[in-house]
Amino acid sequence: MTIIQDRVAVTDVPVLDVFAERWSTRVFDTEVPLDEEAFASALEAARWAPSANNSQPWRAIVARRGTSEHESLMSHLLGFNQAWAGSAAALVVFVAETETEDGTGAPWAVYDTGQAAAFFTIQAHARDLATHQMGGFDRDGVSAAFGLDARFTPVAVMAVGSFGDSTDSPDFLRELESAPRTRRPVAESLLRNA
């Protein structure tokens, strides 16, 4: 696995290496095709994410670079995401099934879809794929472009591919790629810790 040492998180307590080493790049190699075996492994990990009543309320739209689907997804990304995401080997939309076929609401679906995306991300990183999740996209546009029923809600778009070389990137991307990795302390995230 490629480990970029200056990107490894400095954690307050030990965590698995795959968590400390994972980070969201915006620089992907534009020439390297998607590692299909590693990608299939990440999808398999997502399949095994926990869900309420084993309902598995997630779906995915996969759009590989060079396809009309990739081009369509790129057109629905917002703002800054359009400046860098196109270099990824694939874009994946994680979609939550927020209602069942009979119209019953599934309030846990977005949470469970997030877990599937997280499992995908960690497995992708373990297999040397870079990822970056995005919330900045036109959900209605994606739904229309891919003919999603109203019961399906696009939750996030993830760029996936091989790490690129930031030295060949514009200044603003090089700055983002080299910025220190920070998180607020755990204590500040706990509303109550009795």
TrEMBL record:
<dbReference type="Pfam" id="PF00881">
    <property type="entry name" value="Nitroreductase"/>
</dbReference>
<dbReference type="InterPro" id="IPR029479">
    <property type="entry name" value="Nitroreductase"/>
</dbReference>
<keyword id="KW-0560">Oxidoreductase</keyword>
<dbReference type="InterPro" id="IPR000415">
    <property type="entry name" value="Nitroreductase-like"/>
</dbReference>
<feature type="domain" description="Nitroreductase">
    <location>
        <begin position="78"/>
        <end position="161"/>
    </location>
</feature>
<feature type="domain" description="Nitroreductase">
    <location>
        <begin position="20"/>
        <end position="66"/>
    </location>
</feature>
<protein>
    <submittedName>
        <fullName>Nitroreductase</fullName>
    </submittedName>
</protein>
<dbReference type="GO" id="GO:0016491">
    <property type="term" value="F:oxidoreductase activity"/>
</dbReference>
<comment type="similarity">
    <text>Belongs to the nitroreductase family.</text>
</comment>
